Amino acid sequence: MLSDATWRALxxxxxxxxxxxxxxxxxxxxxxxxxxxxxxLTTHARDFVTRRVAPRDPPNEGKQTPVTGHPVFxxxxxxxxCCRGCLVKWHKIPxxxxxxxxxxxxxxxxxxxxxxxxxxxxxxxxxxxxxxxxRP
Length: 136
Ligand SMILES: [Zn+2]
Hints:
- This protein is an all-alpha fold.
- It has one domain (4-121).
- The chain is built from six helices and no strands.
- Helix 3 (27-53) runs antiparallel to helix 6 (101-125) and helix 4 (71-78) crosses helix 6.
- The protein is elongated, with a radius of gyration of 17 Å.
- The N and C termini lie far apart (56 Å).
- The structure holds zinc ion.
- Zinc ion binds at residues 82-83, 85-86.
């Protein structure tokens, strides 16, 4: 499991990148994410990472992760876990060899942290309900 301190440190670094911070879930992706829940998203995240990012020479390296279409894809761009190039640069995970199970777990944890923050955010930012009209 990713510790709170590790996640906060990573969040801080990602927060300094205007490129990374512009990734947000669309209404549709947010609805999909809250519909499926974190357990299903964990399965999807692990599957995408294993198939698209983990191989020694990932097919389409650098372009293997679509920008929209699934909340996990968006999370991958937001957290710089979209390709091996970004994993080297941001997470110090070397390229040229298959990701270990521990590294796949780490990436999956990062993705789930970002996704749960996104799922929590709309509630936090939701405006208070309009004041009820006093009855005459
Ligand atoms: Zn990338």
